[in-house]
Amino acid sequence: MLGIVAAVLFFVAFLINAAEIGTNDTFSSGNVMLLGLTLLALHVAGIGTSWHSRRRR
């Protein structure tokens, strides 16, 4: 799930950069890209993956 959110944030950062949209310092393309990288790192670390409980057989 976090990987999908990271991909969406990367796309938003690309659109901000490609369209040269003037945003304030909080929502600049670099900051949005860093949020995406943070979520991608959490996904790779296993934070956003689903855990299945072990069933007794």
From TrEMBL:
Transmembrane region(s): 34-51
Taxonomic source organism: Streptomyces lavendulocolor
Taxonomy, superkingdom: Bacteria
Name by which UniProt lists this protein: Secreted protein with PEP-CTERM sorting signal
Assigned keywords, A-Z: Membrane, Transmembrane, Transmembrane helix
